[in-house]
Design a protein that fits this description.
257 residues, alpha+beta, 2 domains
Length: 257
């Protein structure tokens, strides 16, 4: 075999090896994106229009978003704000009270209340009584981006700033941000939805007011008409707000104030 033939074979082998590695990386990337459990609180278009708005105190912050730099905060940061219209110490919490119920283990209501109360009921159990069991749930932390589907500068600019960016196609924006997020952080869950303004409390067999992390008190916050994006990483220890570089969203963002 000539030297030229050997060199050509080596080149072809290296090309095939490189292509195989590239395909493996692409599959891994697609898998990490496709398996992200994304859900929204409601079906269909959950927003008043196919756009949402993000307010800022500084002009440069608004311009950063239009250039593809997304400022991501954390639940713990939101809990600590001193401004009562901005900070919420009870952020991402929920309280459940079982009330009182008596029945056998095959009773669906007994099973539901036991599950909500953190009680395990074995097969064949009978004459079970549960009374006023209280279960308090709290997300330790998570990454969050808070927006609104109402452009109301008169109501929101004092609390969130006078500069505003309009985000078109919120679901696509969320998908692209989540993909950028997933390339640098392992995510357990990613969620977008409208915030429900109600008590963070439910009892007995009532339905929860909404998903944990998406319920806020009505009297204080309902004017904000918030649309929230929440990302729960594999580890919630020592999360800090940061700027996520995601140039893919810049075409969806335009500064309007």
């Amino acid at each position: 075999m000539s030297k030229k033939t050997r060199k050509n074979k080596q080149k072809n082998h290296q090309k095939k090896k490189h292509a195989k590695i590239l395909r493996r990386k692409q599959k891994k990337s697609q898998r990490s994106i496709s398996t992200l459990p994304t859900r929204s609180k409601q079906d269909g278009n959950i927003f008043k229009e196919n756009c949402i708005f993000r307010f800022f105190f500084e002009k440069w912050q608004a311009e950063a978003l239009t250039n593809g730099y997304v400022w991501i905060s954390t639940l713990e940061t939101c809990r600590g704000y001193e401004n009562p219209e901005q900070g919420d110490p009870g952020e991402a919490t929920m309280t459940y009270n079982s009330g009182k119920i008596t029945g056998d283990g095959d009773n669906p209501d007994v099973q539901l209340i036991a599950k909500r109360s953190g009680i395990s009921i074995g097969k064949g159990c009978s004459n079970i009584t549960m009374s006023n069991n209280i279960c308090y749930s709290r997300l330790p932390d998570g990454y969050v981006l808070c927006t609104t589907d109402d452009f109301l500068p008169g109501k929101l600019s004092k609390t969130f700033g006078m500069y505003c960016v309009k985000i078109n196609n919120p679901k696509l924006f969320f998908k692209r941000v989540t993909e950028c997020f997933g390339q640098q952080t392992k995510l357990n869950e990613s969620i977008i939805g409208k915030v429900v303004y109600d008590d963070r409390f439910y009892k007995h067999t009532e339905n929860p007011p909404g998903p944990i992390g998406f319920v806020k008190p009505k009297d204080k916050y309902s004017d904000q008409s918030e649309v929230r994006m929440l990302w729960i990483p594999e580890s919630c220890a020592s999360l800090k707000p940061f700027s996520l570089q995601c140039h893919e969203v810049s075409e969806l963002c335009e500064r309007i104030a």
